[in-house]
Design a protein that fits this description.
2 helices; 71 residues; mainly alpha; elongated
């Protein structure tokens, strides 16, 4: 399996505000940008295959995404 743990653009701001949750979101775009970050990572997983040693295979057809609450 592969683990990708993105640090979203507003993550540092959220931590600095004490994890204020949804009320502390910089803007509504925070939600759109987070989804776009995950989509970009999933799109790029296939590119990672070229960097793996021979014999290792990425099954990009079965992604699993997990996370925690915003805040």
């Amino acid at each position: 399996f592969i683990v990708a743990a993105p640090a979203h653009a507003d993550s540092a701001e959220q931590r600095a505000n004490g994890g204020t949750g949804l009320a502390g979101a910089a803007s509504p775009l925070s939600f759109v940008n987070r989804a776009a970050d995950v989509s970009m990572i999933l799109d790029r997983i296939a590119e990672a295959q070229a960097a793996l040693p021979a014999g290792y295979v990425i099954d990009a057809s079965r992604p699993v995404v997990g996370g925690h609450s915003f805040g």
